[in-house]
Design a protein that fits this description.
alpha/beta, five-stranded parallel beta sheet, about 30% helix, repeat, Rhodanese-like_dom, TST/MPST-like
C-alpha cells in the first residue's frame, strides 16, 4: 500500500516500478490566484489528469465529482488499472493533487499518494523534467467502487446543523470565512456554514510542502475530538482536500468532503437555513 504522501527522492527511487502511474493534475488557473513558474514542465512519464474531464457536467456547480462510470471510463483512457500504484502531483507544490488523491479514494482506489511539494520540490531536488506529457498507448482496466461515506451531500450538512454529529472544517481564507473578504466567484456572498471552524489550507503547508506530523497535530488538536466525524469544505471542494489529507496524517476520524462546499451552500439552501437558526 502506498503512503499518503511520497517525497521526490522516493519517486525517483521507484521510477522503474512497472505498476507506477504518474499523474500531473496541474490546472491553468485557480480561485486562489496562485501561479506556477513551471507551467510547461513535467516529470518524465507524466499523464495529464484533467480535472474537468473528471468533474460532473450535470451541474453548474464547479469541480463536482463525476459519476463512478465516467470516472472509470476516464481512468481507463489514462491506462490506469486497479493494480496501478499512482503518484499525483501539481506544479504549485500542493494544490490540486490532494483533490485527485481524494477522488481516487472515493472510487475505491487507495493505492495512491501525493508527491509532497509537487513539481517545485522535484525540480529543487535536481531531478529531470520534460516539456512533454506522456501519451497513453493502451487502455486500462480500472473498475470504480464508489464509497458514499467519503462524500457529504448538502442534506447531510443541513441535518448536521441540529445534530452536530460532525465537525465541519472550512479551508478557505479567514476573510472569506468571516465574511470580510469577497468570494472569487462573481455574485457569491462570503461567510460560513454555521458551527463550522476555519483551518485555511495554507496553514497546513510550508513552502508548498506539508508541515511535519507534529505541527499538523498541533493545528488540529484544539478543534478535533477523538472519533467525531469530520466534514471538509472550501469554495468548491478542491482546497478542502488539502486540509483533509493533512488531517488524515494525524487523525483517523471518519472524513468526508462537502463536494458542493460554500458555492452550493451560498447559492441554495444556505440563506434560508441560516435565517431559521438565528
Amino acid at each position: 500500500m502506498m503512503p499518503l504522501t511520497v517525497s521526490p527522492q522516493w519517486l525517483h527511487d521507484n521510477f522503474d516500478d512497472p505498476n507506477l502511474v504518474l499523474l500531473d493534475a496541474s490546472t491553468q488557473d485557480n480561485k486562489a490566484g496562485k501561479q506556477s513558474a513551471f507551467n510547461k514542465l513535467f516529470i518524465k512519464g507524466s499523464r495529464q489528469f484533467d480535472l474537468r474531464a473528471f468533474s460532473s457536467r450535470k451541474t453548474d456547480l464547479p469541480s463536482m465529482l463525476t459519476s463512478p462510470n465516467v470516472f472509470q471510463k476516464e481512468c481507463r483512457k489514462l491506462g490506469i488499472n486497479n493494480t496501478s500504484r499512482i503518484v499525483v502531483y501539481d506544479n504549485l507544490g500542493i494544490y490540486t493533487s490532494p483533490r485527485v488523491w481524494w477522488m481516487f479514494r472515493v472510487m475505491g482506489h487507495k493505492n495512491i499518494a501525493v508527491l509532497d511539494g509537487g513539481l517545485p520540490a522535484w525540480i529543487q531536488q535536481g531531478f529531470d523534467t520534460t516539456p512533454l506529457l506522456e501519451q497513453t498507448s493502451g487502455t486500462g482496466a480500472f473498475t470504480a467502487s464508489y464509497n458514499p461515506r467519503s462524500v457529504a451531500e448538502i442534506d447531510q450538512v443541513i441535518s448536521n446543523l441540529s445534530t452536530k454529529r460532525a465537525l465541519v472544517i472550512d479551508a478557505r481564507s479567514p476573510g472569506r470565512f468571516n465574511g470580510t473578504a469577497s468570494e472569487p466567484r462573481a455574485g457569491l456572498r462570503s461567510g460560513h456554514i454555521p458551527h463550522s471552524v476555519n483551518v485555511p489550507f495554507e496553514k497546513v503547508l510550508e513552502n508548498g510542502i506539508y508541515k511535519s506530523r507534529e505541527a499538523l497535530r498541533d493545528i488540529f488538536k484544539p478543534i478535533i475530538t477523538k472519533d467525531k466525524p469530520l466534514i471538509f469544505s472550501c469554495g468548491s471542494g478542491v482546497t478542502a482536500c488539502i486540509v483533509l489529507l493533512a488531517c488524515e496524517m494525524v487523525y483517523k476520524n471518519d472524513k468526508a468532503v462537502f463536494d458542493g462546499s460554500w458555492t452550493q451552500w451560498a447559492l441554495t439552501e444556505g440563506l434560508s437555513i441560516e435565517a431559521s437558526i438565528e
